[in-house]
Amino acid sequence: MAKKASSKSVAPVGSTAPRIDIGISDKDRAAVAAGLSKLLADTYTLYLMTHNFHWNVTGPMFNTLHTMFMEQYTELWNSIDSIAERIRALGHFAPGTYREFGKLSSIGEPTSVPEAMEMVRLLVTGNESVAKTARDAFKLADAANDQPTADLLTQRLDVHEKAAWMLRSLLQ
Q1: Per the database record, which ranges form the Ferritin/DPS domain (predicted)?
Q2: Rounded to an integer, what distance in angstroms lies between the CA atom of residue 62 and that of residue 7?
Q3: What is the CATH number of domain 42-170?
Q4: Residues 104, 92: contact at Cβ < 8 Å?
Q5: In terms of CB atoms within 10 Å, which of 38, 59, 81, 146 comes out highest?
Q6: Residue 58, Cβ neighbours under 10 Å: how many?
């Protein structure tokens, strides 16, 4: 008689893919994916804001800020895929619309084009918001013993805390 497979490895009815069995419970994977979804929304929102400021900055610090903003939005753009792919690796769909990002993001968007130093202030606040979101998601990943997500979040924390420091230095 054939041995029956455990329910953890049995695919849902109608599916040919095996269930995810990576040593993290379904509940914990869902919680971590939800935290990463907020991080993805914050990252995308900050990316858009930074790119917008890159296009629209004016004033005596134009060259410095234009270049700095480009470096920052490029880094943000490159990180979006890693965050979304980690959500998928955990077995969940990544948010990917402005509407979803708007609901999930903790970052407010400016309603007009601010002056250069206000752009810098808003980007400091935005980077700090993303860092807080990453730190909250890290707690979930750590509790779930999810090292790949914890590693990703540690890297994101480093990037956002450094960006906030560099931007804040321009305001002193």
Answers
A1: 34-172
A2: 60
A3: 1.20.1260.10
A4: no
A5: 146
A6: 12
